[in-house]
Amino acid sequence: MGAHSRKCDWCGSGTPIVRDMEPVNSAFQYWCEDCARALIIKGDPIETYRELDGEPIYGRLLDAHCTLKRFYSFATA
Question: Which domain of life is it from (predicted)?
Fold first, then answer.
């Protein structure tokens, strides 16, 4: 099943923009933009991730909403 045919693992309705490559719970790997933004604002951002659309949407969310700058990394294939 490709990422574009998936839905957000948290809300079950949004189209995923990012995949958590080291999830705490394997049931929650794919996140839509709204749910990913909520994670960042809550202070629990995804640290090792893969952008799914080729656009740095999640990276822009981190820049805009993350107050504590940590080391984030793109997963490579």
Answer: Bacteria
